[in-house]
Amino acid sequence: MNAPSRILVVFYSRSETTAELAGRLAAELEGDYERLREVELRRRAGPLGFLLSILDVVRRRPAHLLPMTHAPADYDVVLIGTPVWAARASAPVATWLSLHWDQMRTVAFFCTMGARGSEDAFEQMTQLARRAPIATCAVSAQDMRTDAVVEKVSRFVQAIKEALAARERETAAR
């Protein structure tokens, strides 16, 4: 019998919305959970921090991240979560992906957003990760206030489990 798939949920959250979603996913998938943290903890706080965040993604400025405690290479799949800023992944997530793309076997992406921009953010994340995700999940602020988030999370979790099961069957067939 094979060992259960090891799953890591890596995310950045400025307003705690993405953190809430990441926590749900880690619990549903029984995975480890790690928040990306910046050296300057207060840089993105408040209205001015929001504006600086938008400028960082538009100007493609890298974030200065603290080291992580989990190694992405130790996991079968890494879920990467970001808020969407100006139709892009947050600067911390974009920076992390550009630094760690070669340490991941399989990825899945999730995002939180005001209303739109997930397609562009996921495309950017795919390019930075240098691989296509096995699943994606985009959750709007409206979804977070309704039962829509439950359905979206359920579909995302199921897609990840199915992809991992298919890989396990392929490995067993060899």
Summarize this, please?
The chain is α/β, with parallel strands linked by helices and 174 residues long.
Annotation keywords:
Rossmann fold; alpha/beta; 174 residues; 6 helices
Description of the structure:
The protein is of the alpha/beta class and 174 residues long. The protein has one domain (7-173): Rossmann fold (3-Layer(aba) Sandwich), CATH 3.40.50. Helices cover 45% and strands 18% of the residues. The protein has 6 helices and 6 strands. Strands 1, 2, 3, 4, 5 and 6 form a 6-stranded mixed beta sheet that branches. Helix 3 (91-100) runs parallel beside helix 4 (118-129). The protein starts with 6 loop residues before the first strand and ends with a helix.
What count of helical segments does DSSP give? 6
Low-confidence stretches: none
Ends apart, CA distance between termini: 15 Å
Task: Tell me, briefly, the overall form.
Answer: globular
Question: Helices, strands, pairings?
Answer:
Elements: E1 7-11, H1 17-29, E2 32-35, H2 46-58, E3 77-85, E4 88-89, H3 91-100, E5 107-113, H4 118-129, E6 136-140, H5 141-144, H6 148-173
Parallel strand pairs: 1-2, 1-3, 3-5, 5-6
Antiparallel strand pairs: 3-4
Helix pairs in contact: 3-4
